[in-house]
Amino acid sequence: MDSQLEGFLNSLAEAERAGGRVLHELTELAHSLELREMLKKVGHDEGYYAGELSAHVRRLGGSPSTRTGDFVEKIRAVGEFRGKLELLNRGQRWVIRKIEENVPTIGDGQLKAFLVVMAEGHRVNIGALEESLKQGVV
Length: 138
Prior knowledge:
The chain is an all-alpha fold and about 140 residues long. The protein has one domain: Up-down Bundle (Ferritin), CATH 1.20.1260.10. The chain has five helices and no strands. Helix 1 runs antiparallel to helix 4.
């Protein structure tokens, strides 16, 4: 497996693990039941993506990372709940951007298809969270 691709996939998996951990913490802080359910769903997605990224690394002959990214500490450092949610969406946008930058260079069709679906899942989750923020369901 190409070391650059392995590094890219592992960095995404680390970010997804961090997102999952952060979402678990944010779910506990949510006052609205609707927001709590939405955050649980997004957290579930993050865990799924992390697992799938690791599986692709293994399938392609690489070594999956088990680290969790530093995004957890960045979110914890933000004082207000709304700010944490806004930073969460910025992190989701970072993942989309990284996928879009790298997808054209990926030759493996199965991995490419997964990454396209993953980016779309992040877009959906960003939209749902933005709608909650707009409606003040925080």
